[in-house]
Amino acid sequence: MGKILVFTEAANGKLKRSSIELLTAAKKSGQPFIAAIAGSQAAGAAPALSSSGAAEVHTFEDGKFDQYNPELYTAALSDLITKSGATVVLASASALGKDLFPRIAARLKSAVLSDCTELSFNGDKAVVKRPVYSGKAFAKVTFDQSPIQFVLMRANQLPTEELSGGSAAVTKHAAPAGDLKTLIKDVVKGTSEKLDLTEANIIVSGGRGLKEAANFKMLNDLADVLGATVGASRAVVDAGWVSHGMQVGQTGKTVAPSLYIAVGVSGAIQHLAGMSGSKVIVAINSDPNAPIFQKATYGIVGDAFEIVPKLTEEFKKALHK
Amino acid sequence: MKIVVCLKQVPDTETKIKLGADGQSIDTNGIKWVVNPYDEYAVEEAVKTRDAHPGSQVHVLCVGPKKRTADAVRTALAMGADEGILIDAPENLDPATTAQALAKAIQAEGGAQLIFAGKLAIDDNASSVPQMVAELLSIPHTTVVSKLAVTPESVTAERDVEGGAKEVAQLALPAVIAANKGLNMPRYASLPGIMKAKKKVLKELDLAGLGVNTVALTKTLSLELPADKPPVKMLTGDSGAQAAQLVQLLRDEAKVL
Ligand SMILES: Cc1cc2nc3c(=O)[nH]c(=O)nc-3n(C[C@H](O)[C@H](O)[C@H](O)COP(=O)(O)OP(=O)(O)OC[C@H]3O[C@@H](n4cnc5c(N)ncnc54)[C@H](O)[C@@H]3O)c2cc1C
Fold first, then answer.
1. B2-210: CATH architecture
2. What's the pLDDT tens digit per position in B42-92?
3. Where in the sequence of chain B do the CATH 3.40.50.620 domains occur?
4. What is the pTM of this model?
5. DSSP 8-state code for residue A3
6. CA distances from A52 to A17, A22, A27, B86 (A)
7. CB within 8 Å of A104: residues ≥ 6 apart
8. Is the confidence metric ipTM above 0.90 for this complex?
9. Up-side HSE of residue A227: CA atoms within 13 Å toward CB?
10. Is the Cβ of A300 closer than 8 Å to some Cβ of chain B?
11. Is B132 in Cβ contact with A102 (below 8 Å)?
């Protein structure tokens, strides 16, 4: 039997949903699992991990971990992984996860499967599904001669369960010694307090059909009612209406929310590449022949300026806001 | 300063994907191959950095079947890179093996001060190779970079993370930088550039010659096309009726509210 190490992340003192998904998957696998967390959130999240059913909890609380430094994190975590005897490492395909785990995998002569959307186990071998060719195909992949199996899961893909059980000991680890060639100078906060597009459960996205930057206000209003994050097509990012962090698509973010509402977005293949994995897609477009309708679950042909405010009102009523 | 760009050739973004007969890879017949979009930012940044640091040179390394990858490398040469190296390899080489090949080739070529790559290859979607190359060369890396300042000793890079936040890091050289969109505006290859690139001799290496360990770390079980979506439900009536109907469907039928 294998042993799973779940690398978790937290924000505002709480484990992220994506991490709870991983812990739930580890628990369901029937294999023993241990949990790890690093950074300023580690101390706060440790109690929740301790009672999650994990056999051990490992934290890296030293102030040096407050900011993500690839070299420091690689040294600390590859050491933990090796010593723990873990054969599988589960982590989120987050900004940190995607940057860090390929480096650790290289150090441990192992492979990493990134951006996975499904996970199961065949004995102690992880089997995943992951989008390739910009979501135009899905590969079912397993590990072969990889000493450690690194799996990075996309958020919102796995079910979560209430985590309870046990009270695992929490082991605190010091920062590894050694000179670092990377110096984190600054972390500039984003302007948005909302969930990142890659984690959001609902996304409202705007395209060139909105005519000008100021009209994104209309989408922000709709998003506020829905608790959604606002995204955009490349056309409006390139026009400078919104920042690149909001771009969905091949050269932007790949998202897979429960609900994706595309307003004035034509549905170019490069945009579809980033969002066609969404569970329910709503398209609002004045052109009945816009390609977005071919991918949509529900379509409204009409003028965004007329429909969006009415939609916002209807959602307010339905959600009692 | 010696600058290396790790470049991948991928199917064009518009390509329709068909499954191959083996059920594990795509049918490459009729595919138009292009430079991976993120690697264009890498090439542009490399050329710009070279021009700002006299005496520098840009070498482009590409792993893949050499009979097709030569085109991609020539595109980078036409954008201004100085030398191209093809590392011949089979289709669908995994990221770990690709990284090994690149790291060994960089070492064989005498190392590099700055190594650029794209943050992601749009075919295998792995976002792994740059970090792996850095680890294999024991040098620092940063990925998803949208702003960069280079001095002869170090780089300062802005990396895009969740929620529009940015991590600013200073890396001692040599280092690996993986480019995001926004880093620059890649130039088009000029006509004289294309003519010059055509005449350049590309250096050739291969996996065996580099001593790359090709043991399979992963195994693809199957490749599938996404399931067909049921046809779109178009909502009718005036805008008020459409809005009301949509909210009702999202709540009661799709159950996503
Ligand atoms: C290599 C490459 C990478 C790319 N990467 C991306 C990417 O990551 N993401 C991305 O989005 N694009 C990407 N693109 C660009 C893509 O091809 C399209 O150009 C872009 O998505 C179009 O954006 P749009 O839908 O906002 O604009 P348009 O295509 O101009 O569509 C605007 C839509 O708004 C509708 N409209 C107009 N007025 C109204 C109204 N009043 N009410 C309702 N609807 C209205 C129109 O009918 C139209 O369908 C990429 C392109 C290339 C070549």
1. 3-Layer(aba) Sandwich (3.40)
2. 999 999 999 999 999 999 999 999 999 999 999 999 999 999 999 999 999
3. 2-210
4. 0.93
5. -
6. 14, 11, 9, 50
7. A74, A77, A78, A81, A89, A150
8. yes
9. 9
10. yes
11. yes
